[in-house]
Amino acid sequence: MIPPRPAALSAAPHASASPLRSPSLPVAVALAAAPVAVLLQSKAMAPLALVAMALAVLVHRRVHGAWPWPRAAAAWLAVALGLWGMESAAWSVVPGRSLGAGAALAGAALLGGAAARAVAEDTAEARARLARWLAAGLALGLAAALFDHLSGSALRAAVRGLREAPAALAFGLKPAAAVMAMLLPLALAAPWPGWARGALLAAGIAVVLTLPGESAKLAALAGLAVAGAAWVAPRAVPRLLGAVLAALILLGPALLAPALEAAAPRLAATLPHSAAHRLAIWDFALARIAERPLLGWGMEASRAIPGGGEGPTEETLARLGLTAPAQRAFLLAPGAAELMPLHPHSGALQVRLELGVPGALLAAALALLLGRAAARRAPHPPAAAGALAAAAVSALLSFGAWQAWWYAALLLVAAGAAGLPSRAR
Fold first, then answer.
1. Taking burial as the number of CB atoms within 10 A of a residue's CB, which of 24, 217, 364, 420 is the most buried?
2. Is 250 helix (H, G, I), strand (E, B) or coil?
3. What would the pLDDT profile of 1-24 be if each residue is shown by its tens digit?
4. How far, in Å, CA of 211 to CA of 148, rounded?
5. Domain locations in the chain?
6. Is residue 16 within 8 Å of 63, Cβ to Cβ?
7. pTM of the entire predicted model
Protein backbone atom coordinates (compact mmCIF):
# COMPACT_ATOMS: atom_id res chain seq x y z
CA MET A 1 0.00 0.00 0.00
CA ILE A 2 2.18 2.81 -1.33
CA PRO A 3 1.05 6.26 -0.17
CA PRO A 4 1.46 9.58 -1.92
CA ARG A 5 5.04 10.55 -2.71
CA PRO A 6 6.48 12.36 0.31
CA ALA A 7 7.16 16.03 0.22
CA ALA A 8 10.42 17.38 1.57
CA LEU A 9 9.93 17.63 5.32
CA SER A 10 13.28 18.95 6.46
CA ALA A 11 11.64 22.23 7.39
CA ALA A 12 8.50 20.71 8.93
CA PRO A 13 7.77 22.14 12.37
CA HIS A 14 7.69 18.73 14.03
CA ALA A 15 10.72 17.21 12.29
CA SER A 16 13.66 16.34 14.49
CA ALA A 17 17.22 15.28 13.85
CA SER A 18 16.98 12.63 16.58
CA PRO A 19 16.63 9.12 15.12
CA LEU A 20 14.41 8.20 18.07
CA ARG A 21 11.88 10.73 16.79
CA SER A 22 11.94 9.24 13.31
CA PRO A 23 8.87 7.16 12.33
CA SER A 24 10.93 5.30 9.75
CA LEU A 25 13.48 4.02 12.27
CA PRO A 26 11.44 1.01 13.52
CA VAL A 27 10.65 0.03 9.93
CA ALA A 28 14.31 0.41 8.96
CA VAL A 29 15.32 -1.86 11.84
CA ALA A 30 12.71 -4.44 10.86
CA LEU A 31 13.75 -4.39 7.21
CA ALA A 32 17.39 -4.85 8.23
CA ALA A 33 16.51 -7.75 10.54
CA ALA A 34 13.91 -9.40 8.31
CA PRO A 35 16.20 -11.49 6.04
CA VAL A 36 17.95 -13.21 8.94
CA ALA A 37 14.77 -13.41 11.04
CA VAL A 38 12.74 -15.12 8.33
CA LEU A 39 15.67 -17.41 7.60
CA LEU A 40 15.79 -18.63 11.19
CA GLN A 41 12.01 -18.82 11.65
CA SER A 42 9.43 -17.62 9.13
CA LYS A 43 6.79 -17.06 11.80
CA ALA A 44 9.02 -14.37 13.31
CA MET A 45 8.02 -12.10 10.43
CA ALA A 46 4.58 -11.38 11.86
CA PRO A 47 5.63 -9.95 15.24
CA LEU A 48 8.70 -8.27 13.75
CA ALA A 49 6.72 -6.46 11.05
CA LEU A 50 3.62 -5.65 13.10
CA VAL A 51 5.55 -4.27 16.08
CA ALA A 52 7.76 -2.17 13.80
CA MET A 53 4.77 -0.72 11.95
CA ALA A 54 2.93 -0.01 15.20
CA LEU A 55 5.98 1.83 16.56
CA ALA A 56 6.23 3.85 13.34
CA VAL A 57 2.61 4.95 13.74
CA LEU A 58 3.09 5.83 17.42
CA VAL A 59 6.26 7.84 16.77
CA HIS A 60 4.50 9.74 13.99
CA ARG A 61 1.64 10.51 16.37
CA ARG A 62 4.06 11.74 19.02
CA VAL A 63 6.11 13.90 16.63
CA HIS A 64 3.34 15.30 14.44
CA GLY A 65 0.45 15.33 16.88
CA ALA A 66 -1.92 13.41 14.57
CA TRP A 67 -2.50 9.82 13.57
CA PRO A 68 -1.22 8.90 10.09
CA TRP A 69 -4.49 7.53 8.74
CA PRO A 70 -3.89 5.86 5.37
CA ARG A 71 -4.45 8.08 2.36
CA ALA A 72 -3.81 5.42 -0.26
CA ALA A 73 -6.94 3.81 -1.67
CA ALA A 74 -5.06 0.51 -1.88
CA ALA A 75 -4.77 0.38 1.90
CA TRP A 76 -8.52 0.76 2.32
CA LEU A 77 -9.17 -1.91 -0.32
CA ALA A 78 -6.99 -4.31 1.67
CA VAL A 79 -9.02 -3.44 4.77
CA ALA A 80 -12.21 -4.07 2.79
CA LEU A 81 -10.90 -7.47 1.75
CA GLY A 82 -10.46 -8.37 5.40
CA LEU A 83 -13.93 -7.08 6.25
CA TRP A 84 -15.40 -9.19 3.43
CA GLY A 85 -13.58 -12.15 4.93
CA MET A 86 -15.32 -11.42 8.24
CA GLU A 87 -18.65 -11.21 6.42
CA SER A 88 -17.99 -14.61 4.85
CA ALA A 89 -18.33 -16.14 8.31
CA ALA A 90 -22.10 -15.98 7.70
CA TRP A 91 -21.87 -18.88 5.20
CA SER A 92 -18.43 -20.29 5.93
CA VAL A 93 -17.89 -23.94 6.80
CA VAL A 94 -15.55 -22.62 9.53
CA PRO A 95 -17.26 -19.39 10.69
CA GLY A 96 -15.05 -18.73 13.69
CA ARG A 97 -11.88 -19.08 11.66
CA SER A 98 -13.26 -16.83 8.92
CA LEU A 99 -14.22 -14.13 11.40
CA GLY A 100 -10.83 -14.18 13.10
CA ALA A 101 -8.79 -14.30 9.89
CA GLY A 102 -10.76 -11.44 8.34
CA ALA A 103 -10.41 -9.26 11.42
CA ALA A 104 -6.67 -9.95 11.59
CA LEU A 105 -6.19 -9.06 7.92
CA ALA A 106 -8.27 -5.88 8.16
CA GLY A 107 -6.40 -4.72 11.26
CA ALA A 108 -2.98 -5.49 9.79
CA ALA A 109 -3.85 -3.72 6.53
CA LEU A 110 -4.98 -0.62 8.41
CA LEU A 111 -1.76 -0.66 10.43
CA GLY A 112 0.35 -1.22 7.31
CA GLY A 113 -1.30 1.65 5.46
CA ALA A 114 -0.78 3.97 8.42
CA ALA A 115 2.85 2.91 8.78
CA ALA A 116 3.47 3.47 5.07
CA ARG A 117 2.19 7.03 5.36
CA ALA A 118 4.23 7.65 8.51
CA VAL A 119 7.42 6.43 6.87
CA ALA A 120 6.76 8.33 3.64
CA GLU A 121 6.37 11.59 5.57
CA ASP A 122 9.72 11.23 7.33
CA THR A 123 12.75 13.32 6.39
CA ALA A 124 14.93 12.64 3.36
CA GLU A 125 17.82 11.77 5.67
CA ALA A 126 15.69 9.18 7.47
CA ARG A 127 14.54 7.62 4.21
CA ALA A 128 18.14 7.34 3.01
CA ARG A 129 18.98 5.57 6.27
CA LEU A 130 16.11 3.15 5.73
CA ALA A 131 17.42 2.22 2.29
CA ARG A 132 20.98 1.75 3.58
CA TRP A 133 19.87 -0.48 6.44
CA LEU A 134 17.59 -2.48 4.17
CA ALA A 135 20.45 -3.17 1.76
CA ALA A 136 22.88 -4.05 4.55
CA GLY A 137 20.39 -6.42 6.17
CA LEU A 138 19.69 -8.03 2.83
CA ALA A 139 23.41 -8.62 2.25
CA LEU A 140 23.71 -10.24 5.67
CA GLY A 141 20.62 -12.37 5.09
CA LEU A 142 21.86 -13.59 1.72
CA ALA A 143 25.20 -14.59 3.24
CA ALA A 144 23.48 -16.40 6.11
CA ALA A 145 21.09 -18.20 3.75
CA LEU A 146 23.93 -19.36 1.52
CA PHE A 147 25.90 -20.63 4.51
CA ASP A 148 22.87 -22.45 5.88
CA HIS A 149 22.13 -24.05 2.52
CA LEU A 150 25.70 -25.16 1.85
CA SER A 151 26.12 -26.47 5.40
CA GLY A 152 23.01 -28.65 5.25
CA SER A 153 20.83 -26.34 7.38
CA ALA A 154 23.43 -26.20 10.15
CA LEU A 155 22.56 -22.63 11.12
CA ARG A 156 18.84 -23.23 11.52
CA ALA A 157 19.46 -26.57 13.22
CA ALA A 158 21.73 -24.86 15.75
CA VAL A 159 19.14 -22.24 16.74
CA ARG A 160 16.65 -25.08 17.27
CA GLY A 161 19.06 -27.02 19.47
CA LEU A 162 19.38 -29.88 16.97
CA ARG A 163 22.65 -31.73 16.56
CA GLU A 164 21.65 -32.97 13.13
CA ALA A 165 19.38 -31.23 10.67
CA PRO A 166 16.44 -33.30 9.41
CA ALA A 167 15.98 -33.29 5.65
CA ALA A 168 12.64 -31.49 5.95
CA LEU A 169 14.38 -28.48 7.52
CA ALA A 170 15.71 -27.46 4.09
CA PHE A 171 12.18 -26.54 3.01
CA GLY A 172 12.23 -23.74 5.59
CA LEU A 173 14.52 -21.78 3.28
CA LYS A 174 11.64 -21.14 0.88
CA PRO A 175 10.00 -18.34 2.91
CA ALA A 176 13.39 -16.67 3.37
CA ALA A 177 14.08 -16.84 -0.36
CA ALA A 178 10.66 -15.34 -1.12
CA VAL A 179 11.15 -12.42 1.28
CA MET A 180 14.64 -11.69 -0.02
CA ALA A 181 13.32 -11.82 -3.59
CA MET A 182 10.91 -9.00 -2.67
CA LEU A 183 13.64 -6.97 -0.99
CA LEU A 184 16.11 -7.21 -3.87
CA PRO A 185 14.38 -4.58 -6.06
CA LEU A 186 14.14 -2.20 -3.11
CA ALA A 187 17.93 -2.31 -2.82
CA LEU A 188 18.05 -0.38 -6.09
CA ALA A 189 17.28 2.73 -4.04
CA ALA A 190 20.16 2.29 -1.59
CA PRO A 191 22.38 5.40 -1.55
CA TRP A 192 25.44 3.32 -2.40
CA PRO A 193 27.80 3.55 -5.36
CA GLY A 194 26.40 1.93 -8.47
CA TRP A 195 28.93 -0.90 -8.37
CA ALA A 196 27.92 -1.79 -4.80
CA ARG A 197 24.22 -1.92 -5.68
CA GLY A 198 25.01 -3.99 -8.75
CA ALA A 199 27.12 -6.42 -6.74
CA LEU A 200 24.34 -6.86 -4.18
CA LEU A 201 21.72 -7.51 -6.86
CA ALA A 202 23.96 -9.98 -8.70
CA ALA A 203 24.82 -11.81 -5.49
CA GLY A 204 21.17 -11.80 -4.47
CA ILE A 205 20.01 -13.40 -7.69
CA ALA A 206 22.79 -15.98 -7.51
CA VAL A 207 21.94 -16.94 -3.93
CA VAL A 208 18.17 -17.12 -4.44
CA LEU A 209 18.67 -19.29 -7.54
CA THR A 210 20.76 -21.63 -5.38
CA LEU A 211 18.18 -21.99 -2.60
CA PRO A 212 15.18 -24.37 -2.62
CA GLY A 213 11.88 -23.05 -3.94
CA GLU A 214 11.06 -22.67 -7.61
CA SER A 215 8.53 -19.90 -7.02
CA ALA A 216 11.08 -17.79 -5.13
CA LYS A 217 13.52 -18.14 -8.02
CA LEU A 218 10.86 -16.98 -10.45
CA ALA A 219 9.96 -14.15 -8.08
CA ALA A 220 13.54 -12.88 -7.90
CA LEU A 221 13.96 -12.97 -11.67
CA ALA A 222 10.58 -11.33 -12.27
CA GLY A 223 11.23 -8.64 -9.67
CA LEU A 224 14.51 -7.51 -11.16
CA ALA A 225 13.22 -7.83 -14.74
CA VAL A 226 10.23 -5.59 -13.97
CA ALA A 227 12.44 -3.17 -12.03
CA GLY A 228 14.73 -2.93 -15.04
CA ALA A 229 11.82 -2.30 -17.38
CA ALA A 230 10.38 0.29 -15.00
CA TRP A 231 13.74 2.04 -14.93
CA VAL A 232 13.20 2.77 -18.62
CA ALA A 233 9.43 3.37 -18.41
CA PRO A 234 8.62 4.26 -14.78
CA ARG A 235 5.03 5.27 -15.54
CA ALA A 236 3.90 2.64 -18.01
CA VAL A 237 5.46 -0.53 -16.60
CA PRO A 238 3.99 -0.39 -13.06
CA ARG A 239 0.54 0.42 -14.47
CA LEU A 240 0.79 -2.47 -16.91
CA LEU A 241 1.92 -4.77 -14.11
CA GLY A 242 -1.09 -3.85 -11.99
CA ALA A 243 -3.46 -4.45 -14.90
CA VAL A 244 -1.92 -7.84 -15.68
CA LEU A 245 -2.15 -8.92 -12.04
CA ALA A 246 -5.77 -7.80 -11.85
CA ALA A 247 -6.57 -9.82 -14.97
CA LEU A 248 -4.83 -12.90 -13.56
CA ILE A 249 -6.81 -12.65 -10.33
CA LEU A 250 -10.13 -12.24 -12.14
CA LEU A 251 -9.61 -14.59 -15.09
CA GLY A 252 -6.95 -16.97 -13.81
CA PRO A 253 -9.29 -19.52 -12.23
CA ALA A 254 -11.49 -19.58 -15.34
CA LEU A 255 -8.51 -19.98 -17.67
CA LEU A 256 -6.68 -22.51 -15.51
CA ALA A 257 -9.14 -25.36 -16.11
CA PRO A 258 -8.80 -25.43 -19.92
CA ALA A 259 -5.06 -24.83 -19.55
CA LEU A 260 -4.72 -27.89 -17.34
CA GLU A 261 -6.70 -30.01 -19.77
CA ALA A 262 -4.68 -28.83 -22.76
CA ALA A 263 -1.15 -28.60 -21.40
CA ALA A 264 -0.91 -30.89 -18.39
CA PRO A 265 -0.99 -34.21 -20.27
CA ARG A 266 1.93 -33.07 -22.46
CA LEU A 267 4.04 -31.63 -19.66
CA ALA A 268 3.11 -33.75 -16.68
CA ALA A 269 5.67 -36.49 -17.25
CA THR A 270 8.53 -34.00 -16.84
CA LEU A 271 7.25 -32.38 -13.65
CA PRO A 272 8.89 -32.96 -10.25
CA HIS A 273 6.71 -34.48 -7.54
CA SER A 274 5.94 -31.11 -5.93
CA ALA A 275 4.70 -29.61 -9.21
CA ALA A 276 2.67 -32.72 -10.02
CA HIS A 277 1.04 -32.46 -6.60
CA ARG A 278 0.32 -28.79 -7.30
CA LEU A 279 -1.63 -29.74 -10.44
CA ALA A 280 -3.81 -32.11 -8.42
CA ILE A 281 -4.40 -29.40 -5.80
CA TRP A 282 -5.43 -26.84 -8.39
CA ASP A 283 -7.72 -29.34 -10.10
CA PHE A 284 -9.46 -30.01 -6.78
CA ALA A 285 -9.74 -26.28 -6.02
CA LEU A 286 -11.35 -25.59 -9.40
CA ALA A 287 -13.94 -28.29 -8.78
CA ARG A 288 -14.80 -26.81 -5.38
CA ILE A 289 -15.05 -23.29 -6.86
CA ALA A 290 -17.67 -24.63 -9.26
CA GLU A 291 -19.73 -25.86 -6.29
CA ARG A 292 -19.88 -22.39 -4.67
CA PRO A 293 -19.09 -19.99 -7.51
CA LEU A 294 -20.61 -16.77 -6.16
CA LEU A 295 -19.67 -16.37 -2.49
CA GLY A 296 -17.11 -19.10 -1.93
CA TRP A 297 -16.56 -21.33 1.07
CA GLY A 298 -15.50 -18.64 3.56
CA MET A 299 -12.14 -17.15 4.47
CA GLU A 300 -9.60 -19.73 5.68
CA ALA A 301 -12.01 -22.54 4.78
CA SER A 302 -9.72 -24.29 2.29
CA ARG A 303 -8.36 -26.69 4.87
CA ALA A 304 -11.89 -27.68 5.93
CA ILE A 305 -13.44 -28.28 2.50
CA PRO A 306 -14.88 -31.81 2.26
CA GLY A 307 -12.56 -34.18 0.45
CA GLY A 308 -9.48 -32.03 0.88
CA GLY A 309 -7.80 -34.52 3.17
CA GLU A 310 -8.03 -37.30 0.61
CA GLY A 311 -5.52 -38.12 -2.09
CA PRO A 312 -6.04 -37.97 -5.86
CA THR A 313 -7.78 -40.84 -7.61
CA GLU A 314 -6.51 -42.91 -10.51
CA GLU A 315 -9.01 -41.14 -12.76
CA THR A 316 -7.72 -37.69 -11.74
CA LEU A 317 -4.11 -38.66 -12.39
CA ALA A 318 -4.99 -40.05 -15.82
CA ARG A 319 -6.95 -36.93 -16.76
CA LEU A 320 -4.03 -34.69 -15.76
CA GLY A 321 -1.48 -36.87 -17.50
CA LEU A 322 0.28 -37.76 -14.25
CA THR A 323 0.99 -41.32 -15.31
CA ALA A 324 4.75 -41.65 -14.83
CA PRO A 325 5.41 -44.55 -12.42
CA ALA A 326 7.36 -42.42 -9.94
CA GLN A 327 4.67 -39.73 -9.93
CA ARG A 328 1.90 -42.27 -9.41
CA ALA A 329 3.77 -43.95 -6.59
CA PHE A 330 4.21 -40.62 -4.82
CA LEU A 331 0.73 -39.21 -5.41
CA LEU A 332 -1.14 -42.42 -4.59
CA ALA A 333 0.82 -43.23 -1.43
CA PRO A 334 -1.49 -42.98 1.61
CA GLY A 335 -1.25 -39.54 3.21
CA ALA A 336 1.50 -38.33 0.87
CA ALA A 337 -0.46 -35.95 -1.37
CA GLU A 338 -3.62 -34.43 0.06
CA LEU A 339 -5.87 -32.67 -2.43
CA MET A 340 -6.03 -29.56 -0.24
CA PRO A 341 -3.10 -29.32 2.20
CA LEU A 342 -4.10 -26.17 4.13
CA HIS A 343 -4.43 -23.91 1.05
CA PRO A 344 -4.38 -24.12 -2.77
CA HIS A 345 -0.81 -22.78 -3.18
CA SER A 346 -2.18 -19.99 -5.37
CA GLY A 347 -3.43 -16.68 -4.05
CA ALA A 348 -5.78 -16.12 -6.98
CA LEU A 349 -7.35 -19.54 -6.55
CA GLN A 350 -7.60 -19.15 -2.79
CA VAL A 351 -9.36 -15.80 -3.01
CA ARG A 352 -11.84 -17.13 -5.56
CA LEU A 353 -12.35 -20.39 -3.66
CA GLU A 354 -12.89 -18.80 -0.27
CA LEU A 355 -14.24 -15.31 -0.96
CA GLY A 356 -16.04 -15.82 -4.25
CA VAL A 357 -16.62 -13.18 -6.90
CA PRO A 358 -16.70 -10.18 -4.50
CA GLY A 359 -13.37 -11.21 -3.00
CA ALA A 360 -11.82 -11.63 -6.43
CA LEU A 361 -13.06 -8.18 -7.48
CA LEU A 362 -11.59 -6.59 -4.35
CA ALA A 363 -8.25 -8.37 -4.81
CA ALA A 364 -8.09 -7.42 -8.49
CA ALA A 365 -8.84 -3.78 -7.70
CA LEU A 366 -6.14 -3.87 -5.03
CA ALA A 367 -3.57 -5.16 -7.54
CA LEU A 368 -4.58 -2.52 -10.07
CA LEU A 369 -4.25 0.31 -7.55
CA LEU A 370 -0.89 -0.96 -6.31
CA GLY A 371 0.42 -0.81 -9.85
CA ARG A 372 -0.90 2.73 -10.28
CA ALA A 373 0.56 3.77 -6.92
CA ALA A 374 3.96 2.39 -7.90
CA ALA A 375 3.83 4.49 -11.07
CA ARG A 376 2.48 7.74 -9.66
CA ARG A 377 3.19 7.99 -5.97
CA ALA A 378 6.09 5.73 -5.01
CA PRO A 379 9.33 7.64 -4.41
CA HIS A 380 11.23 5.07 -6.49
CA PRO A 381 8.91 3.49 -9.12
CA PRO A 382 11.38 0.84 -10.42
CA ALA A 383 12.02 -0.46 -6.91
CA ALA A 384 8.32 -0.45 -6.00
CA ALA A 385 7.28 -2.15 -9.25
CA GLY A 386 9.98 -4.79 -8.88
CA ALA A 387 8.94 -5.57 -5.32
CA LEU A 388 5.30 -5.80 -6.42
CA ALA A 389 6.21 -8.22 -9.21
CA ALA A 390 8.27 -10.44 -6.91
CA ALA A 391 5.52 -10.45 -4.30
CA ALA A 392 2.91 -11.31 -6.93
CA VAL A 393 4.82 -14.34 -8.22
CA SER A 394 5.14 -15.84 -4.74
CA ALA A 395 1.53 -14.97 -3.92
CA LEU A 396 0.21 -16.56 -7.11
CA LEU A 397 2.28 -19.74 -6.90
CA SER A 398 3.14 -20.52 -3.32
CA PHE A 399 1.99 -19.38 0.10
CA GLY A 400 -1.40 -19.22 1.73
CA ALA A 401 -2.91 -15.79 1.22
CA TRP A 402 -3.93 -15.35 4.86
CA GLN A 403 -0.79 -16.67 6.55
CA ALA A 404 0.08 -13.97 9.07
CA TRP A 405 3.83 -14.12 8.47
CA TRP A 406 3.26 -13.72 4.72
CA TYR A 407 0.94 -10.73 4.67
CA ALA A 408 2.97 -9.11 7.47
CA ALA A 409 6.03 -9.42 5.21
CA LEU A 410 4.05 -7.91 2.32
CA LEU A 411 2.96 -4.95 4.44
CA LEU A 412 6.50 -4.38 5.73
CA VAL A 413 7.85 -4.40 2.18
CA ALA A 414 5.11 -1.96 1.13
CA ALA A 415 6.03 0.36 3.99
CA GLY A 416 9.66 0.08 2.97
CA ALA A 417 8.82 0.92 -0.64
CA ALA A 418 6.91 3.99 0.57
CA GLY A 419 9.90 5.18 2.59
CA LEU A 420 12.68 4.90 0.01
CA PRO A 421 14.68 7.91 -1.13
CA SER A 422 13.18 9.64 -4.13
CA ARG A 423 14.58 8.74 -7.52
CA ALA A 424 15.55 11.62 -9.78
CA ARG A 425 12.91 11.94 -12.50
1. 24
2. helix
3. 444 454 444 334 444 457 778 999
4. 10
5. 19-246+345-418
6. yes
7. 0.91
